Amino acid sequence: MGYIYGPVVSRRLGMSLGIDVVPLKTCPFNCIYCQLASSSKKITKRKEYVSAEQILDEFRKFPSQNAVYEWITFSGSGEPTLNIDLGNMIREIKKISSKKVCVITNSLFLKMEEVRHDLLEADLVMPSLDAVSQDIFERINRPFEGVTAEEIIEGLVKFRMEFFNRIWLEIMLVKGINDTDREVEKFAYAISRIKPDKIHLNTVVRPPIEKNVLPVDRFTLIKIADKLGKNVNVIGNLPKIPELGYGEISSAGLLSLLESHPATLDEISVSFGVSVQDAARIVEELIKIRKIKIKRFENKQYYIFGS
Question: Which of 110, 122, 142, 284 is the most exposed, fewest CB within 10 Å of its CB?
Answer without folding.
Answer: 284
